[in-house]
Design brief:
With about 300 residues, this protein is mainly alpha-helical. It is built from 14 helices and no strands. Helix 7 (about 100-110) packs across helix 9. The longest helix has 29 residues, at about 205-230. It is globular and about 50 Å long.
Length: about 300
């Protein structure tokens, strides 16, 4: 890996690991809908001028799938994640999102995006499920059950979104798709944010958190991820998806003083191990060229999986 690739890799692992911390800070003072509006409005405002340079006609032609992507990847998960973090720690939220590759694998099998799975893959799914159960189990007594259920929807959305992008929106300008999705979500959440606006101006901490989420964790993160893929390829770029939850957990403990038990550590390790086993291709003949999230050029070694937050 080149020096530039290593720098981009490290930056991306950090940039997609910090949203959980900033979401936790922001929702202390603003509603989940207000936060989603701020984040999507900022992200859309940055990406739209860049997207305007591309051809929008194909994006408009497939507007139904663009809308489906926006709902699955942004509209529903972001508001539920923000709500969940009002009731559970950012560390727990980050660790639960580590289960996205497991859901993506099951989704690929159910929708025949992947013809079959090897014995190792089946074992990986089992190991990953045990890991998720361990993470939830050690936290269940002190956590909100509804919030954990909301995180299950978040994880599912994060698995469905990239699959839609890869299988239904391939060949489109990914910047245009993301800019459109963010902008439409901002318009949808604008009236809700207006009704739920805080009675007083949020503190500087909350305002900074919202700006960082929109500018750094959304707009800049997307552009950096694309640069990383150009530099090291889509296969190695997906390794960051295994690091983001660890960054989230470390920051939650170090900055917010959240609890991080040995059981959570063990559960996270099992999820990562299981995800790596489950997403490995069964054989060359069973591999189907599938693009990664955000329309990465086809490469057969990986299923579309992304751990954005």
């Amino acid at each position: 890996m080149t020096r530039r690739g290593m720098i981009l890799f490290g930056v991306m692992a950090f940039v997609w690991g910090i949203p959980y911390l900033f979401i936790r800070v922001a929702v202390e003072e603003v509603s989940p809908a207000t936060l989603v509006f701020a984040r999507t409005a900022i992200g859309g405002a940055v990406l739209l001028p860049i997207a305007l340079r591309s051809d929008w006609r194909p994006v408009v032609a497939r507007w139904r799938w663009v809308a489906a992507f926006g709902i699955a990847e942004i509209g529903v998960p972001w508001v539920l994640l923000s709500w969940a973090e009002q009731h559970i720690t950012s560390s727990l939220a980050g660790l639960l999102v580590a289960g996205v590759p497991l859901v993506a694998t099951v989704l690929a099998l159910v929708t025949r995006g992947r013809d079959r799975i090897s014995g190792m893959g089946i074992l990986g799914l089992f190991v990953g499920i045990v890991g998720v159960a361990a993470i939830v189990g050690v936290s269940l007594e002190t956590s909100n059950v509804a919030a954990i259920a909301a995180m299950a929807v978040v994880v599912t959305g994060y698995a469905v979104g990239p699959a839609i992008m890869a299988r239904r929106l391939g060949g489109l300008s990914t910047v245009a798709v993301m800019a459109t999705s963010l902008s439409v979500c901002a318009l949808v959440y604008a009236p809700i944010a207006l009704v739920e606006r805080p009675a007083t101006v949020p503190s500087m901490h909350a305002l900074v958190a919202m700006v960082v989420l929109g500018l750094v964790c959304t707009a800049a993160a997307f552009l950096l991820f694309w640069a990383l893929i150009d530099e090291i390829g889509p296969v190695r770029a997906t390794v960051i998806t295994y690091l983001n939850p660890a960054v989230a957990a470390i920051l939650g403990v170090a900055v917010l003083g959240e609890a991080f038990t040995p059981g959570m550590v063990a559960g996270f390790a099992l999820v990562i191990l299981g995800s790596a086993m489950a997403t490995a291709p069964a054989s060359r003949r069973s591999r189907e060229p599938i693009s990664l999230a955000h329309g990465v050029p086809d490469e057969p070694e990986v299923e579309p999986t992304e751990l954005s937050a």
